[in-house]
C-alpha cells in the first residue's frame, strides 16, 4: 500500500513537472509566433474626471497616482516616437484626471505644466493648457506661490508675454508665503523685456527652489541652453569672419582652428561639439546633444 | 460579558485557522515590490505612491475580509448546525451577535495593526535610503505619525462593514448578504452626491429622496483622510471623533437590528 502511495505521488510530481515545462514551452512558442497587440491610439475610457472620482469609491489617491504614472509614461513614450508619430493630445486629460482625483498633487500641476508647455516635438507645445492646469492648482491651493511663479514662467518663456508674466509674479508676490524675490522678478521681467538676463534669473530660481529633482534638472538644462546660446552668439561672428576670408563657409571646425580663429573644437556645456552647417554657416547645438533643440528668443 | 468574550475569542481563533494572516504576507510583499518598482516608474513620487498604495491595500483587504468573513459569522453556525448547541447554553441572542461581531473586529484590528507595522517598516527603509536633499521636497516625513490617523479611520470603516455583513447575514443568504454589504459600501461613498442631487438637475422630489437616503445610509467619505495625511495636512481630533462617532452610532443601530432579527429566528 505504501509503495503504491509513493509511486502515485511520484507520478503526480512527474505530471506536474512535465505539464509545467509544456506550458512554458507553449508560451514561448506563442511569444515567438504572435506579435504583441499594441493599440494604435491611446484610449481614455472615462473622459470625465468627476465621474472617475466617483467611480473609484474613495480610492482617489491611489487612482491619482495611477493616472500620474500613466501621464509620465505617456509623455516619455510619445517623446521617443518618430517625429511624424508624435501625438501628445492625451497628456492634458491625463493630468486633469490626476489633479481632480487628488487636488493637492503638487508635482502634477508643476511638472505637468512644464511637460505641457514644452515645444513640439519634445512636448505638445500647449502653454495654454499649462496655464489652465496651474489655474486649477491655484483654485485648490490659493496659497501656493509656486503656481504663480510657474504660470508667469510659462507666459514669459513659452508665450513671450512679459506683461502677463510680470502680472503672475506680482499676484504671487502678494501671498504671505511668497519669497521676497518674486516682486523684484516681476520688475526685472518688465524691465529686461526680451533680454536673456531675466530668463536666467527665472531658471536659476527654479533650479534652486523646485521641490523635485526632475524640475531642478530641467532648470539646469535650460541654464545650459542659455549658456550654449551665448556661446553660439560668439561663434557665429567667427564663422562669418572665416567666410569673409575664404569666400565660403567652413565644412568642419578643424578649418577654423587651422585658420587660427579658435583654439580647439568648441563644445557645448554637455561636452558635445557644436554643429556647423557648411551651406549656411549656421552654428547650432548638435542633434545628438541633450540641449537640442535650442529655444531662441528671449 | 464572559460569554461575549468567549464567542469573540472563538471567532478570532477561527480566522487564524482560516488563514486570514496570509493576506499580511501578501500586503508586505506588495509594498516591498512596489517600493522598488515605483522608483523606476514615477517622477520622484515613490514615497507618496507607497503611502497611498499601502493605505489603499490595507483598506481593500480589510473590506474583503470584513465582507467575506462577516457574512459567514451566523451562516456558518447555522450551516454546521452548531447554532443549536450554542444557543442551548446560557447565551442570549444579543450576546451571540455582539460576541461574533467583536471577534471579527478584533481580527481586523490585529490585521490592520500588523499591516501598519509592515507599512512603517517599508517607509522607514525608504526614508533611510533617500538623500537629504530629496527629502527636502517631501510634503511630510515618510514615517509621519499622522498616517496612523488614516489607519484608525480605516479601522472604523471596517467596523461598519463588518456590522453590515453581520446584519444582512441574519436574514439573508451568504451571496445576497455579500452583495447587499458591498452595495451599502458603494452607496456610502456616493452619499455626498445623494445630498446634492439638485446640483445635478434632479427635481425637488428626487432631491428630497436623495437627502433622505443620505441620512439613512452611513457617509463613508469623512473616513477617507488618505489624501490629507499623505500630503501632510492636519486632520483634527474633532474630525476624527465626529466621523468615528457617527459611524459608531450606525454600527450600534445595525447590531441592535441584527439582534432583533436574529431573535425572531427559530432554532429550537
Give a short overview.
The complex is a heterodimer of chains A (298) and B (268). Chain A contains twelve helices and two strands.
Describe what this molecule looks like in 3D.
The complex is a heterodimer of chains A (298) and B (268). Chain A starts with a helix and ends in a 14-residue tail after the last strand. A two-stranded antiparallel sheet of chain A has the order 1-2. Chain A has 12 helices and 2 strands. The model of chain A has no long low-confidence stretch (mean pLDDT 85). Chain A has helices spanning 2-33, 49-55, 60-80, 91-101, 106-117, 127-140, 145-157, 162-173, 182-192, 196-209, 213-246, 253-258; strands at 275-276, 283-284. By secondary structure, chain A is mostly helical. In chain A, 63% of the residues lie in helices and 1% in strands. Helices cover 77% and strands 0% of the residues of chain B. Chain B is an all-alpha fold and 268 residues long. The longest helix of chain B is centred in the middle third of the chain and has 37 residues, at 93-129. Chain B is built from 12 helices and no strands. Chain B has helices at 2-17, 22-41, 46-70, 72-79, 82-87, 93-129, 132-135, 147-169, 174-195, 204-216, 226-230, 237-264. The interface between A and B is medium-sized, with 24 and 32 residues.
Amino acid at each position: 500500500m505504501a509503495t503504491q502511495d509513493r509511486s502515485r505521488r511520484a507520478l503526480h510530481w512527474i505530471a506536474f513537472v512535465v505539464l509545467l515545462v509544456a506550458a512554458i514551452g507553449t508560451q514561448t512558442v506563442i511569444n515567438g509566433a504572435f506579435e504583441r497587440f499594441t493599440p494604435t491610439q491611446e484610449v481614455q475610457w472615462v473622459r470625465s474626471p468627476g465621474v472617475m472620482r466617483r467611480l473609484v469609491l474613495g480610492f482617489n489617491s491611489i487612482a491619482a497616482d495611477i493616472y500620474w504614472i500613466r501621464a509620465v509614461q505617456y509623455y516619455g513614450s510619445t517623446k521617443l516616437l518618430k517625429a511624424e508619430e508624435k501625438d501628445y493630445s492625451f497628456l492634458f486629460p491625463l493630468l486633469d484626471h490626476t489633479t481632480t482625483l487628488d487636488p493637492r498633487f503638487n508635482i502634477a500641476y508643476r511638472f505637468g505644466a512644464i511637460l505641457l508647455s514644452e515645444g513640439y516635438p519634445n512636448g505638445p507645445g500647449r502653454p495654454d493648457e499649462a496655464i489652465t492646469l496651474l489655474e486649477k492648482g491655484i483654485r485648490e491651493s490659493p496659497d501656493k506661490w509656486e503656481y504663480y511663479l510657474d504660470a508667469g514662467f510659462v507666459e514669459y518663456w513659452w508665450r513671450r508675454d512679459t506683461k502677463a508674466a510680470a502680472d503672475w509674479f506680482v499676484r504671487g508676490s502678494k501671498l504671505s508665503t511668497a519669497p521676497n524675490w518674486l516682486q523684484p522678478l516681476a520688475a526685472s521681467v518688465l524691465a529686461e523685456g526680451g533680454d536673456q538676463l531675466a530668463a536666467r534669473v527665472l531658471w536659476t530660481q527654479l533650479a534652486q527652489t523646485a521641490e523635485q529633482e526632475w524640475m531642478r534638472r530641467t532648470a539646469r538644462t535650460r541654464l545650459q541652453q542659455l549658456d550654449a546660446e551665448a556661446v553660439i552668439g560668439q561663434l557665429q561672428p567667427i564663422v562669418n569672419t572665416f567666410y569673409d576670408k575664404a569666400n565660403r563657409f567652413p565644412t568642419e571646425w578643424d578649418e577654423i582652428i587651422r585658420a587660427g580663429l579658435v583654439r580647439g573644437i568648441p563644445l557645448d556645456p554637455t561636452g558635445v561639439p557644436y554643429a556647423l552647417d557648411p551651406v549656411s554657416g549656421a552654428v547650432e547645438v548638435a542633434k545628438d546633444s541633450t540641449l537640442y533643440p535650442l529655444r531662441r528668443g528671449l | 460579558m464572559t460569554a461575549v468574550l468567549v464567542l469573540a475569542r472563538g471567532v478570532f481563533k477561527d480566522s487564524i485557522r482560516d488563514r486570514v494572516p496570509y493576506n499580511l504576507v501578501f500586503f508586505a510583499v506588495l509594498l516591498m515590490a512596489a517600493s522598488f518598482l515605483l522608483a523606476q516608474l514615477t517622477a520622484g513620487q515613490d514615497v507618496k505612491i507607497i503611502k497611498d498604495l499601502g493605505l489603499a491595500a490595507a483598506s481593500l483587504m480589510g473590506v474583503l475580509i470584513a465582507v467575506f468573513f462577516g457574512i459567514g459569522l451566523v451562516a456558518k453556525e447555522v450551516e454546521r448546525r452548531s447554532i443549536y448547541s450554542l444557543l442551548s447554553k446560557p447565551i442570549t441572542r444579543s450576546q451571540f451577535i455582539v460576541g461574533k461581531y467583536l471577534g471579527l473586529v478584533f481580527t481586523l484590528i490585529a490585521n490592520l495593526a500588523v499591516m501598519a507595522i509592515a507599512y512603517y517598516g517599508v517607509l522607514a527603509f525608504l526614508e533611510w535610503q533617500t538623500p537629504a536633499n530629496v527629502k527636502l521636497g517631501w510634503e511630510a516625513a515618510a514615517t509621519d505619525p499622522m498616517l496612523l490617523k488614516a489607519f484608525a479611520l480605516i479601522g472604523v470603516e471596517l467596523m461598519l462593514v463588518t456590522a453590515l455583513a453581520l446584519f444582512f447575514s441574519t436574514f439573508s443568504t451568504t451571496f445576497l448578504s455579500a452583495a447587499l454589504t458591498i452595495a451599502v459600501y458603494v452607496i456610502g461613498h456616493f452619499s455626498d452626491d445623494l445630498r446634492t442631487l439638485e446640483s445635478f438637475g434632479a427635481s425637488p422630489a428626487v432631491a428630497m429622496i436623495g437627502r433622505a437616503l443620505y441620512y439613512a445610509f452611513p457617509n463613508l467619505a469623512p473616513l477617507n483622510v488618505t489624501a490629507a495625511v499623505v500630503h501632510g495636512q492636519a486632520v483634527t481630533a474633532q474630525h476624527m471623533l465626529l466621523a468615528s462617532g457617527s459611524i459608531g452610532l450606525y454600527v450600534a443601530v445595525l447590531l441592535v437590528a441584527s439582534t432583533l432579527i436574529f431573535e425572531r429566528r427559530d432554532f429550537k
